[in-house]
Design a protein that fits this description.
The chain has 827 residues and is mainly β. The chain contains 13 helices and 35 strands. The strands form seven sheets. Strands 18-19-20-21-22-23-24-25-26-27-28-31-32-33-34-35 form a 16-stranded antiparallel sheet, with no helix packed on it. Strands 1-4-5-2-3 form a five-stranded mixed sheet. The radius of gyration is 39 Å and the shape is elongated. Mean pLDDT is 87; it is low at 1-25.
């Protein structure tokens, strides 16, 4: 039967209205406005698509009543166009039986993508573009796909400074597949175009130099600036224009605005930027009044606000002092730290007159909020009580933002959680005046396998250590808790072995309970160790030299409440025994007669420290300082013997000394992820009795990577990068040393599974054999750079390249370049 074409419609991506026409003739006679019943619908022109689905999408069904022309037929065509699968859609009336008609939906599908290729660009750029475009075989090739792909490619090259990049896209029929095409992207990147100049007009009060500094990403090209690409990026440029106006606002120009800006071509590879500014008048603060404050006096609020009459008007600074000081020194923090969760503070300009502005700070104090419930989520391994004992917020307490911030800091210091994902969700209830707090944490692996390599004692030293953090001693006999070890109670157990072969061996074990008794932040640490040092000859050889060191110590650390609760006081008792067998290797000339015998050391250590850094691995602010005193009983003053006449075996039967040490670190964030670190440390070893003098043990050895726990004779090893290990040391060890470090650190990756930061350092220090020789300005200097990677399983790994500027004692040459490889240790 002859077919009658009823609708022929092509709709572009601009959604033009449907075109419709009615043609009568032959044996099909359709009358406009009369309803016809659909007797059947056939689908033609497509082989790959499910015809039942197409019919469902069209909205047409057998038995429907339609008019020709009519809304239902138009809707069917629109519905099919919306699928984005077809380039032509037609509906025919193929048969008429009275008021019953039969339809055919004819569809011409868009081609599918079989493959694509690039021409005119490098292989590396092809790989980047494939990832960026993310084109998949079988994707429908629509006009939108073509336009989007072209725009993405152009944006890709604009980001690289190629503003003239051209993209031609060819569609080639792929005869190997039904209705498939190959897309060919022919790309001409063109020259790399950089910013040649930035011209300002209208800036009478701020210099060009000042305005250029305010632009963060939009920089003109200069030959010496190797860290800036000088590309014009649209989003960054728009943000820099906002920063420019923000700079004016900071200087009191409240109404400053950009009235025109344009980009012009200077040459084939250079563009210029023109910015015209209307500065407006410079304004100053005049009268500042407070309205609605009953809890705190106006004088108190004025002191916190710290803005005086006549100060340059700065709306951003005003908001910062009222509500948004990142350090918490604003007026809102005063209220929030004292329970006023429902308070609201709004600074309002009430009068602008000549060059002065009056401000009214409107305060709605509201009622104080108390904490109703506190809960923690996300702790799959760590037991609740370990977390709750660190929180400074308790049910029934007044709400305090500073207590919440401190609680988050304490959770980060535990080291059990991803510090970037520790958060809190307060849920206030104004009707009851209460708030629920939910802390969220994400567990991370805390146990560490320590594989440490370094140079010590003139040989390679290897270390194998297992540190089980967040251990649970009470579940040792609970078989179900071994996954692979019992965990969750915050205890630490450490096992360590260190050796360089036949010359040195060290074994140690320690256990720490951070909350002794479970009610107060008071930790107990117990450790034992045994070290063997020889000259490498086997046992039984008459020339073998041997030093055995065995010790045990126990200490208690208590968190103090005064001067503030960042302070910790530690006091510990240690017993150490040295057994010498024909041993002359490491002592100075003052101890040549002491090669056989036993020396015992019982000492008390008192350590006062304060740590208020925000994060343990990469601190961005805060400080750490430690002052310690280690002392033995003054045996020589108590036993009545004349120590000037005693043999070394008798004289050093009991070791006596006192030792002061001081360490300080200060961190400050200069920019996002860029941190400055300043460090100083000092050590002083002295004696009670001049006839006894300094002991042969417990000396300071300075230089190198500072390989810790390498205990030869009770010595303390102090790193000094840029110099070989132990080279900045008088014969027999030093009794005084000082050391200073300035470091710039940049966080490359905050990923908790592999936290990476780079550093550049300037370092100086020295070691002296007696107090009379001490000169704080006689320093061995070095500088260099390094990188650190923190992995939960292995701890901190790093490498430093340092250049020593000064001579090594006993050498005529400067130290020069030295490489320090560190695993499991942090400077």
């Amino acid at each position: 039967m002859k077919r009658l074409a009823i609708f022929l419609s092509i709709i572009s991506f601009l959604s033009f209205p449907l075109a419709a026409q009615i043609t009568t003739g032959g044996d099909i006679e359709l009358i406009p406005g009369i309803e016809y019943e659909i007797g059947g619908v056939e689908i033609g022109g497509t082989e790959d698509l499910d015809k039942n689905v197409i019919l469902l999408l069209s909205g047409l069904s057998v038995g429907d009543k339609v008019t020709i022309p009519g809304e239902k037929i138009s809707d069917a065509i629109q519905n099919l166009w919306k699928q984005g699968l077809f380039e032509d859609i037609r509906i025919y009336v193929t048969q008429q039986q009275g008021d019953i008609i039969f339809l055919e939906i004819y569809l011409q599908e868009l081609p599918k993508l079989s493959k694509f290729y690039f021409t005119g660009i490098k292989k590396s750029q092809k790989n980047d573009l494939r990832e960026d475009l993310n084109l998949q075989r079988g994707t429908i090739v629509t006009e939108n796909l073509i336009v989007t792909s072209r725009n993405r490619i152009r944006d890709f090259y604009i980001e690289k400074g190629h503003f003239d990049a051209k993209v031609e896209i060819k569609q080639i029929v792929d005869s190997a597949y039904n209705n498939a095409v190959i897309l060919g992207f022919e790309i001409d990147p063109g020259p790399r175009i950089k910013i040649g100049e930035i011209v300002f007009k209208g800036n009478e009060n701020l210099s060009d130099k000042t305005l250029l500094k305010s632009l963060k990403e939009t920089k003109k090209h200069v030959w010496y600036n190797v860290f800036r690409s000088s590309k014009l990026l649209k989003e960054q440029y728009e943000e820099d224009k906002r920063l420019l106006i923000k700079k004016y606002n900071r200087e009191g120009f409240r109404d400053a605005r950009i009235i025109e800006d344009s980009v012009y071509r200077m040459s084939d590879d250079r563009i210029g930027i023109f910015v015209e500014i209307e500065e407006g008048n410079k304004f100053y603060f005049r009268d500042i009044t407070f309205l609605g404050n009953s809890k705190y006096s106006t004088d108190v609020l004025r002191r916190i606000l710290n803005i005086n009459r006549g100060d340059v008007y700065d709306a951003a600074y005003l908001q910062e002092r009222v509500n948004f000081d990142p350090k918490g020194n604003d007026i809102a923090s005063l209220y929030l730290n004292n329970g006023y969760l429902f308070s609201n503070l709004v600074p309002v300009e009430v009068l602008v007159e000549n060059d002065s502005i009056d401000i009214e700070i409107r305060i709605r104090e509201g009622r104080q909020a108390t904490i109703k419930t506190v809960k923690v989520t996300g702790n799959d391994r760590t037991n609740d009580h370990v977390i709750y004992r660190e929180l400074r917020t308790r049910p029934g307490d007044l709400f305090s933002r500073s207590d919440i911030q401190r609680s988050i800091r304490e959770l980060a210091q535990l080291g059990y959680f991803d510090q970037q994902q520790i958060g809190v969700n307060p849920v206030p209830d104004p009707e009851t005046g209460t708030v629920d707090l939910e802390y969220t944490v994400v567990e991370r692996s805390t146990s560490q396998l320590e594989l440490q390599g370094g140079w010590g004692g003139n040989t390679i030293v290897g270390t194998l250590g297992l540190n089980f953090n967040n251990f649970s001693a009470r579940n040792i006999f609970n078989g179900k808790s071994w996954t692979p070890l019992p965990s969750g109670d915050g205890q630490t157990i450490s096992l360590r072995a260190q050796t360089n072969g036949r010359w040195f061996q060290s074994y140690s074990a320690s256990f720490t309970e951070p909350w002794l008794g479970g009610r107060k932040p008071q930790s107990l640490t117990v450790s034992v160790y045994h070290n063997i040092q020889t000259n490498g000859l086997p046992k039984g050889n008459l020339s073998r030299e041997e030093l055995n060191t065995t010790g045990i110590n126990a200490g208690i650390a208590k968190r103090l409440k005064w001067p503030d609760d960042y302070f910790t006081l530690y006091y510990g008792l240690e017993f150490r025994r040295f057994n010498l067998v024909n041993y002359t290797r490491f002592f100075g000339t003052d101890f040549l007669g002491y090669s056989d015998g036993t020396s015992k050391n019982i000492n008390l250590k008192i350590n006062l420290s304060r740590n208020n850094t925000d994060m343990p691995i990469f601190p961005t602010r805060g400080s750490i300082f430690t002052l310690s005193l280690e002392m033995t009983p003054p045996h020589s003053l108590l036993d009545g013997r004349d120590y000037s006449t005693l043999e070394p075996q008798q004289k050093y039967e009991w070791i006596e000394y006192y030792k002061w040490k001081f360490n300080a670190d200060w961190f400050s964030e200069l920019a996002k992820n860029l941190v400055f670190r300043a460090h100083a440390e000092f050590g002083f070893l002295n004696y009670y009795n001049e006839d006894y003098g300094l002991p042969p043990f417990e000396r300071f050895y300075v230089g190198g990577d500072g390989l810790q726990n390498f205990v030869l004779d009770g010595r303390e090893i102090v790193g000094l990068r840029g110099y070989p290990n132990g080279t900045i040391t008088p014969p027999g060890g030093g009794s005084m040393y000082n050391k200073y470090i300035f470091e710039l650190r940049y966080l490359i990756s905050p990923n908790p599974n592999a936290q990476i930061f780079a550093l550049a350092f300037a370092e100086a220090g020295n070691n002296f054999n007696q107090f009379a020789a001490y000169n704080p300005f006689d320093l061995k200097r070095s500088t260099g750079a390094g990188v650190r990677i923190f992995m939960p399983m292995f701890g901190l790994l790093g490498v430093d390249f340092g250049y020593g500027f000064d001579r090594i004692p006993g050498s005529i040459r400067v130290s020069g370049w030295q490489t320090h490889f560190i695993i499991g240790q942090q400077f």
